[in-house]
Amino acid sequence: MLRMLQSVAFLALTAVFAAAPSAAAAYGHLPLTFEHNEGQADPSVAFLSRGQGYSLLLTPTSAELRLKSAAKERATVRWQVAGGNRDARLTGESLLPSTTNYFLGNDPARWRSGVANFGRVRATGVYPGIDLVYHGNQRQACKRAPPVNAGN
């Protein structure tokens, strides 16, 4: 059974938002947090983000959004970079003060603690001269590629 424990500060913040009616609006403004995959997801996934009702999985050439309700997967949306570099390098940017811990079963070898959280993930070299950056908040994810100078 997978149990995810967030840092104490994040849990306290979430508890405050759950208690107040206007908290849902405030929660929507919290940034997405991305984690490097250290064994908590399929090996094809480089970075992931989880939140209330969703998981976002990133690979060098795709992003997969899984929407859930009451522990059941309800829908999956997958974006793929057509003809993109399969070896694009994904790196976390904007290191956040929070970390994530995973305690899988009773075997400490499967546990992951202190997994760094990032505010953005950059896929470098998706196409020649083009990087893709993933970021957002709890209400919307954004992916963007900087403008390309066609003269280069």
The general outline is globular
Main sheet attributes: strand count, strand direction, barrel closure: 10 strands, antiparallel
Overall pLDDT score? 75
Distinct helical segment count: 2
Structural class estimated from helices and strands: mainly beta
Number of strands: 10
Measured by DSSP, the beta-strand proportion falls in over 45%
In short:
The chain is mainly beta. The protein has two helices and ten strands, in the order E-H-H-E-E-E-E-E-E-E-E-E.
SSE layout and pairings?
Blueprint (H helix, E strand, L loop, with lengths): L3 E3 L1 H12 L3 H5 L6 E3 L10 E5 L2 E6 L2 E8 L2 E9 L8 E14 L9 E16 L2 E7 L4 E4 L8
Antiparallel strand pairs: 1-7, 2-3, 2-8, 3-4, 4-5, 5-6, 7-8, 8-9, 9-10
Word description of this protein:
The chain is mainly beta and 152 residues long. The chain has one domain (4-12, 30-144). Helix content is 11%, strand content 49%. The protein has 2 helices and 10 strands, in the order βααβββββββββ. Strands 1, 2, 3, 4, 5, 6, 7, 8, 9 and 10 form a 10-stranded antiparallel β-sheet that branches. β4 (54-59) and β5 (62-69) form a beta hairpin. The longest helix is centred in the N-terminal third of the chain and has 12 residues, at 8-19. Mean pLDDT is 75; it is low at 1-18.
